[in-house]
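Hey, I'm writing a tutorial for new members on how sequence and structure tokens pair up, and I'd like a real worked example in the thread rather than a made-up one. If someone can provide the structure for the chain below, I'll link this post from the tutorial.
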Amino acid sequence: MKIVTYNVNGIKARLPRLIEYLSEDAPDIVCLQELKASDETFPIADVEAAGYGAVWHGQKSWNGVAVLAKGRQPVERQRGLAGEPDDEHSRYLECDVDGLVVASIYLPNGNPRPGPKFDYKLRWIDRLAARARDLLAEEVPAVLAGDYNVIPNDDDTYSVRAMAEDALMQPESRGGYRALVAQGWADSLRWRFPTGGVWTFWDYQAGAWQRDHGFRIDHLLLSPQAADRLTDAGVDKAYRGREKASDHAPTWVTLR
């Protein structure tokens, strides 16, 4: 079973690339982020025509997450995170797919910092950690997949110096991510590439893609029950180089 996290950076603009990926690679489950589309404008007809059922949590112009499953319909378990009742951002969607719990996550960017956006990012990580603890207590195979907007280690970026002041690499951001992993979640890409140097995102600016100036911010964290079934992990990097592609590449794990 191949499970993918893919920040599409606008599903309307990237729909041809998404359908292309679903057709060519045929992953079993796909967690999408940054839909930038309302619930009403999500292209469900195109997704279903490609052979996928879907659950989505949209938001006009911003954010938005979805879970797609090949040949079956995901069953929604939860949308949004507890702990901040006034938070209207569409950033968390949790589904069941044939006994596997899968969450699509779009963690706040947090820039500029210091400031309210960075404070919101840190609160959001804490809220995610609370939900993650509850999932671990269920003792089920679970995957927390998404764009975490956190560069966990120095070897997860092309340049520590270039990213030193960015919210993605601050000690508080890293600390929140590491505390999440320390609960018992396995960082699948780190397991596969323990020395780092693997990117999932390349900015559109300054020739980042052409110069391979990227970093790793898309992660798939596995509960112990899912980690026991882990066989491989990687990045479908070539899709980042296609015409009008997202600035993220599909990032994946395979489970027995």
